[in-house]
Specification:
Layout (H helix, E strand, L loop, with lengths): L1 H27 L9 H34 L19 H31 L6 E8 L2 E5 L5 E3 L2 E4 L4 E7 L4 E5 L4 E5 L5 E5 L14 E4 L11 E7 L1 H14 L1
Parallel strand pairs: 1-5, 4-10
Antiparallel strand pairs: 1-2, 2-3, 5-8, 6-7, 6-9, 9-10
Helix pairs in contact: 1-2, 2-3
């Protein structure tokens, strides 16, 4: 009984220590890329929440492994010739483990599951509609009034944008790392993606401000990217007017 109590003390101490270290690293260090859209805030908050919730579980498994390795290792030279005594299941621990993990699973299903997805979808309205056509290995962007750009995407800051995305040849994927959003570009079908850029910036400021194909599509897949430039609303309107007049 005393040895079992000592084992539980070791386990508890290691679990608390590993959990504290893990939570400090998860919550204290900001290792995520810069966020350039409201949707990126939603995704990053969900990631940090899931990471923080998973730390105690990982710490518990790691602590149990360490206690098993350190406290129950073979104490004599050579390999044992027979199995050790059976270890009976601790039903209390099993019930506690199932209850805690089930509770966590239900929590993350609600938030960030249902709540986070609803916030990402938002209202089906937009201040600007941009059509994007993917083809090997380039992007065609069409703005209101028919103005077009190739392999360049300009967006207004702090305005909700809807992308109508399709593909001309094969399956591609429209991904903007700085916005944390991605959706497939499917031939013969139009998919929709909403995003609200926050703050002016460009690919020169952050290499994650780019559209990158995230679906392997042939030899030029890795080069199928286009820079994203986010302008203040008045600057974007002036740029779009110049583009339309020059078309």
């Amino acid at each position: 009984v005393d040895r079992r109590r000592t084992d539980w003390i070791w386990f508890g101490a290691l679990w608390v220590l590993l959990t504290a270290i893990g939570e400090f690293l998860a919550l204290g260090l900001d290792l995520l890329p810069a966020r350039w859209a409201h949707e990126a805030d939603v995704v990053d908050e969900a990631y940090i929440l899931l990471l923080a919730l998973s730390v105690p579980i990982f710490a518990g498994v790691a602590a149990a492994l360490l206690v098993s390795l350190l406290r129950f290792r073979v104490q004599v030279d050579g390999v044992p010739t027979e199995d050790g005594p059976p270890v009976h299941t601790n039903r209390r621990v099993v019930r506690l483990w199932l209850a805690s993990t089930l509770t966590l699973a239900l929590m993350v299903t609600v938030n960030p599951g249902f709540i986070g997805l609803a916030e990402l979808r938002g209202e089906p309205s937009a201040d600007l509609v941009v059509e994007v056509q993917a083809q090997r290995w380039s992007w065609k962007v069409t703005y209101p009034d028919g103005a077009e750009t190739w392999n360049q995407l300009y967006l207004p800051a702090d305005q909700r944008v809807r992308f109508d995305i399709t593909a001309l040849d094969i399956l591609h994927s429209f991904w903007i790392p700085a916005f944390r959003v991605k959706i497939d570009a499917v031939p013969g079908r139009t998919t929709h993606l909403y995003v609200t850029p926050e703050g002016a910036g460009s690919f020169d400021d952050d290499f994650n401000l780019r559209v990158q194909c995230a679906e392997i599509c042939g030899l030029g897949h890795s080069n199928m990217a286009m820079p994203v430039t986010v302008l203040e609303a008045d600057e974007f309107d002036a740029w779009l007017t110049d583009l339309a007049e020059g078309a």
